[in-house]
UniProtKB/TrEMBL annotation:
InterPro entries: Carb_kinase_PfkB-like (IPR052700), PfkB_dom (IPR011611), Ribokinase-like (IPR029056). Keywords: Kinase, Transferase. It holds the Pfam family PfkB. The keyword Protein biosynthesis does not apply. This is 2-dehydro-3-deoxygluconokinase. GO terms for molecular function: kinase activity. Residues 10-324 form the Carbohydrate kinase PfkB domain. Belongs to the carbohydrate kinase PfkB family.
């Protein structure tokens, strides 16, 4: 039942929990003498927002049975995410260092210790795919996890097949990261992406994923024209019900622009083009994805869903940290009145 609508409010996400070590202000690692830590990961970020929207969320991951793992568990629980499916094993949590950009200088992320983390060394069979599919209506998967290693890839495919067989819904965010796949990454990643796309009901991607990841071609010059040509072709080729994504830009004054799109049954809806300053860039794509999933769960029209998701992504840029703190009411208010003064 790959085309069944997302009607449940019970959502599981499979993914790594990472420790984020942020350099204060706009300093570089070579300048700073302190770091601020928090925990994140695509699954954590998406589930945290969906929990704020009122959904029942569960994280599927592995964390070490030590103080580092305890801190991560406590952080995830404070976000309203269920930890029933968190496996305690392995030795440590993967980390990344964030140097925040400013003006023309982009932010920089440096990963550390990911391949040996509890999540990335979990053995096959660490998670009961059949039980997960029986207890949850929606599964969220991310391409960042797909880049890790063959064991993680097999687990992702096992989970997706179990949910598909049970008539559940699978959400897959392509989230291709060149630095994680390395040399000849697109050709190495392509068969894995193709297999997961064929199991997905809702996909987050853009026209670059279609051309570079999937090897599709288009004679169109403009990104939006390529998008309109290629995205329906991807949906048809892989049997995907909904595809959504964003088109982004950076202006001369270093504000950002963002426009969301959603394609269902070959029909596109585009959000307004939003322009805004950026406080923290990391996690905005996850806020967009959460908005799309929420719109599908609530039965919003495609036009409302993509406006909601775009506003969600915009607000995510205004909070420190990977995880947006916007509520559904915050986002709906922003949709009707994008700029706000002090609330009294």
């Amino acid at each position: 039942m790959g085309n069944a609508p997302l009607t449940s409010r019970t959502i599981a996400a499979y993914g790594e929990v990472m420790m984020r070590l942020s350099v204060p202000g706009g300093e570089l690692l070579t300048q700073a003498d302190t770091l601020r830590y928090s925990f994140s990961g695509t699954g954590v970020n998406v589930l945290a927002m969906l929990a704020r929207f009122g959904h029942n969320t569960k994280l599927v991951t592995s964390l070490p049975a030590n103080p580092q793992g305890d801190a991560a568990i406590g952080y995830v629980r404070k976000l309203g995410i269920g930890t029933t499916y968190v496996r305690r094993a392995g030795s440590h949590v993967g980390m990344y260092f964030l140097e925040a950009g400013f003006g023309p200088r982009p932010s920089r992320v440096t990963y550390a210790g990911r391949q040996d983390s509890s999540f990335n060394t979990a053995p096959e069979g660490a998670y009961d795919a059949e039980a997960l599919a029986g207890e949850n209506e929606v599964l969220h998967l991310c391409g960042i996890s797909l880049a890790m290693n063959d064991g993680v890839r097999r687990q992702m495919k096992t989970l997706a097949k179990a949910f598909k067989s049970a008539g559940r819904s699978v959400v897959f965010d392509c989230n291709y990261r060149p630095v994680l796949w390395g040399e000849d990454g697109y050709s190495r990643a392509r068969p894995h992406y193709a297999e997961l796309l064929a199991l997905a009901d809702v996909v987050l991607m853009n026209e670059r994923d279609a051309t570079q990841l999937l090897g599709m071609s288009s004679a169109q010059v403009q990104p939006r024209e390529r998008l309109v040509e290629l995205i329906p072709a991807v949906a048809d080729a892989y049997g995907i019900r909904t595809i959504a994504g964003t088109m982004r830009g950076v202006n001369e004054d270093y504000t950002h622009t963002l426009q969301g799109f959603i394609c269902k049954s070959g029909n596109f809806s585009f959000s307004r083009k939003l322009t805004f300053p950026v406080y923290d860039r990391i996690g905005a794509g996850d806020a967009f994805a959460a908005g799309i999933v929420h719109g599908e769960l609530q039965g919003f029209s495609p036009a409302t869903t993509v406006e909601f998701a775009a506003a969600s992504a915009m607000l995510a840029h205004t909070y420190a940290g990977d995880i947006s703190l916007a509520s559904e009411a915050d986002i709906l208010r922003t949709m009707s009145k994008p700029a706000g003064d002090v609330e009294r």
